[in-house]
Amino acid sequence: MAAPWEDVLRDTPAIREAAAVAVDAALLEGVLMRTEGEPNASDVVNFAPFTLLPSVVPQALFEQAYAVQQDFNLLVDAISQNKEFLERTLASTIKVDDFTARLFRIHMQVLEEGLAQSVFLGINRSDYMFDCGVDGTTALKQIEINTIAASFGGLTSRTVPVHQRVLKVLGKFKEASKLLPNNPSKGLALGIAKAWELYGSPSAVVMFLVEKVQRNIFDQRCVENELWNRNIRVIRRRFRDVFEKGSLGEGRRLYMDGQEVAVVYYREGYVPKNYDQQNWEARLLLERSRAVKCPDIATQLAGTKKVQQELSRPGTLESLLPGRAEAVARIRATFTGLYSLDMGAEGDKIAAMAIADPDRFVLKPQREGGGNNLYGEELRQVLEKIRDSPERTSYILMDKIKPQPALNYLLRAHSPLQVSECISELGIFGVYVRQDKGMVMNRAAGHLLRTKAVEHADGGVAAGVAVLDTPYVV
Ligand code: ADP
Ligand code: MG
């Protein structure tokens, strides 16, 4: 679908003027990131990369993505409570993938001891692309669902006024008024606040567990601020702090520096490099505690790519969500082809199919954070090397989604202004709270649009490939 500003895309003076306004507006609105050179200081900061113009998103697909979010919340929550499903699904993966295996061991250990936690908080983001068929129709297809440390719910709210300003500078006043308000961090904080309240100790704090490198701190501060606005105390700590100063008291209540912790919100712990032996011990301590973990370790496992692939098998969704045929249908409609590479005849056939036609597929390991997937010739070479080895079971295979590119300008600090062919990925934030067996909150909390140049197969905003965007819904 053509954007209503195609006429100005090649008007260099107008674009230059708009870009200068855009960058200053981004700084004013707080579309911020710390610099690569000084990732842990806020003395000098940059604007977070963003598109000069909003990207067109078809209304039907936008609404479909919102409509299925509560179903995905229910699904993730159901998986997290289904020990047998996780055990069966991850059995082959944990034999070859050490990271997933370690998470899984903690999961089993915690279940064996018995859960001290009775309030559960899920914050996820389901990501999609708009697949373009040969007949030109577009379909909403899920890339993945992130069940831990899903980011940009804060910064994404701040691109809306920036893009409004840009459109006005380009004379597109009517279009500027059509950009939808969006503030996921409010919804995320609402979930955290609900979990904190149900935990039931008014003096307890919310602990953000954060990484060593904190370039994206402003995104997290947006959520923090919403909590402070509700008079909830927030502390920021690392795994190392938990190892050194964390302890469990009566009823396995979690204490940090003498303060009781009601909710642990992970913006950390999703990749192997986040862990050394002490950090694994800290993770175990947190999981054993009564504190509400967002996510608990079972919910983190529910977000693995192996689980995603198993969900696409006929009958799996039905067994996880019994009596919810409509939810199952809405979820299934967003799936593209997903294939298991487990050892055996089925996996052999899939490996051969991918090797014969690598451009049709994406090969994915059990990793998060962008830049890990394999495409094209590299996919073929890697799969040829491991096709007869159990190592192949650490990957899943997925149909490649092919969106229609559109022209835009990607604004990055210290980068020249040039037009690029771009594709976008839409994420919907989901938030839910469960107390024992009863759902207390289940909602969609807002969206995130990220856009990248078509020549990059992989990678998100933090990986330096995609940039923040605002949907122009038509
Ligand atoms: P990660 O956990 O690393 O974010 P993703 O599954 O989200 O892994 O993949 C990373 C990126 O790779 C996505 O943001 C998207 O740009 C691209 N990608 C992933 N799966 C597909 C697919 N099936 N078709 C096209 N691009 C994909
Ligand atoms: Mg992703």
Could you please describe the fold and organization of this structure?
Homodimer. It comes from Tricholaema leucomelas (pied barbet). GO terms for molecular function: ATP binding; glutathione binding; glutathione synthase activity; metal ion binding. Keywords: ATP-binding, Glutathione biosynthesis, Ligase, Magnesium, Metal-binding, Nucleotide-binding. Helices cover about 40% and strands about 25% of the residues. The chain has about 475 residues and is an alpha+beta fold. It has two domains: about 400 residues, no CATH class; about 60 residues, Dna Ligase, domain 1, CATH 3.30.1490. Strands 3, 5, 6, 17, 18, 19 and 20 form a seven-stranded antiparallel β-sheet that branches. Strands 7, 8, 9, 10, 11 and 12 form a six-stranded mixed β-sheet that branches. It has a four-stranded antiparallel β-sheet with strand order 13-16-14-15, sandwiched between helices. A hairpin with a 7-residue loop joins strand 17 and strand 18. Helix 8 packs across helix 9, helix 10 packs across helix 11 and helix 16 runs antiparallel to helix 17. The longest helix is centred in the first third of the chain and has 18 residues. It is globular, with a radius of gyration of 22 Å. The termini are close together. The model has no long low-confidence stretch (mean pLDDT about 95).
Average pLDDT: 97
Oligomer designation: single chain
Output the structural class: alpha+beta
CA distance, first residue to last residue: 9 Å
Helicity level: 25-40%
Alpha plus pi helix count: 17
List unreliable stretches of 5+ residues: none
The fraction of residues in strands falls at 25-35%
The figure for the number of domains is 2
Number of strand segments: 21
Bound molecules: adenosine-5'-diphosphate, magnesium ion
